[in-house]
Amino acid sequence: MSMHLLEKKIVKNNIFFVIPSWGDLLGFPILGNYANHNISKISQDLVIFLGGTECAISTERGTLYFLFGLGYYYVKFELQSGRYIIDNRQLTGLILPDFVYDHLATSKNITLENDRDVIVGEKLFKLPIDMSFKSENKITFIQGTLMRNLFIPYKDIFLEFMETIRDPQSFQLNRSGHMLLSTHWDFYNKIMISGDMEPKAAYLNSTAGLFGINFGADKILNENFTLSELKKIKESIIKLKILYSSIDYDPMFLFSIIENSSPLLRTSNKPFSFNLEDDRMDKKMPKESIFISAERRMNYFKDWPMELKRQTREQLESSVIQEKPKLYQPDKREMPEKPEVLKFQKREEEFELRTMKRPFVEIKPLPYIPHDNALEILLMLKKIVEENYEITTIGKAFDIARNNIKKKVLHENYLWDLSKYTNIYERTEPNLGLSSKEKIELLEDIDKWVKITVEHSDKL
């Protein structure tokens, strides 16, 4: 890659940044493959960033925008076999060339059109972590909007992201280096990783929605930043890792992540605000103000390249050619001496499929769930699971159980698990029960929670 840097501006900017659909932003370029299996459908592909540093770099080819911080690429997809998979990748940076940035910055806004600091749009959610300069009424409105449009619909993903940050092994720049989600001209729709990462790491495995995961992050960064700049970027990410690993937050009120981190990230200087003389109430702006470093390009627009053809999700999925299983018919001379082994393997596969199939069940009213005793609540949950209730009913039971336990116990490790199952089960199709495999695994989890509760009560 050869390019000459014409101008560069690095800015400290602590922001909350979410692209609700990576595929939608890029015009659904690819379904991809996973573990040598073709993908037939992508149902979720969220990109989340708790940003700390951003940068705009002007080159002879155009402008590049970098965002550095703690990031997450989350994807839920379906294989041609019909199996649903959830996968994710940690990220430390995002690279957007001008044509992607401008497409994002001109996408339709859902609300808050009179506030240039906050974006609630079809393709992007963005707000500053520090909102101390805003009125209490404005913050309350932003809070409600974010909860309604983002934190509640994607609650389980955000909880998973925060748990990943808390993992001591996550975002280890000294060991694994940078992980950059890129739409750079030469590395389009790829994750570029550092040479510090172990070549056999599971991170390198292909996943849905991307053209690939490749080495090359070091080259990109070294060509665009000095060693001192890279050191500052690294220190900023490490600081964010420590901060977000330690903050408390309410899993039922995820806006508390922003509320509780704001005082810790607040500086003595007045925070930067786009909402000054160019407020949209007085002047219509041509683009959204996503990055501070992009303000000088507010009146410029780069068209989407013709060679990167955009399409809809439906067009992408309809282009998939369903592959039929290839049946190998061996010559008689090639037949194994003990064909009964093959039959045994087939029976194992059929049994595995049966254990994963969700049966149809009748709808039954939810029984009374205790209010005052956590152990009794968990035992009732176990009974409901054992008696084959509808999955959506089980989800409702888990929701009630979580709220009842929370009233009595301020913190239990399994409250997050109860929230996770509630979100998963309440969105399931009606009249379906748990598969035998799901049922066994869920009962094992409940038994663990019962054990934790009993041990806790013994210590009191």
What does this protein structure show overall?
With 460 residues, this protein is an alpha+beta fold. It has helices at 22-26, 98-105, 136-151, 155-166, 173-176, 217-224, 227-246, 256-265, 313-318, 340-356, 374-386, 391-408, 415-426, 436-459, and strands at residues 5-19, 33-34, 37-59, 62-79, 84-97, 109-111, 119-121, 125-128, 179-184, 187-193, 212-215. The protein folds into 2 domains: 5-297, no CATH class; 332-460, no CATH class. The chain is globular and about 70 Å long. The termini are far apart. Mean pLDDT is 84; it is low at 276-282, 326-336 and 338-345.
Oligomer: single chain
Count of distinct structural domains: 2
Query: How would you spell out the order of helices and strands?
Result: EHEEEEHEEEHHHEEEHHHHHHHHH
The best one-word shape is globular
Q: How would a textbook summarize the main sheet?
A: 11 strands, mixed
Distance linking N and C termini:
64 Å
What is the average per-residue confidence, as pLDDT, rounded to a whole number? 84
Low-confidence stretches: 276-282, 326-336, 338-345
Number of DSSP helical runs? 14
Question: Roughly how much helix do the residues carry, as a percent range?
Answer: 25-40%
Strand tally: 11
Helix/strand/pairing class, anyone?
alpha+beta
Radius of gyration: 25 Å
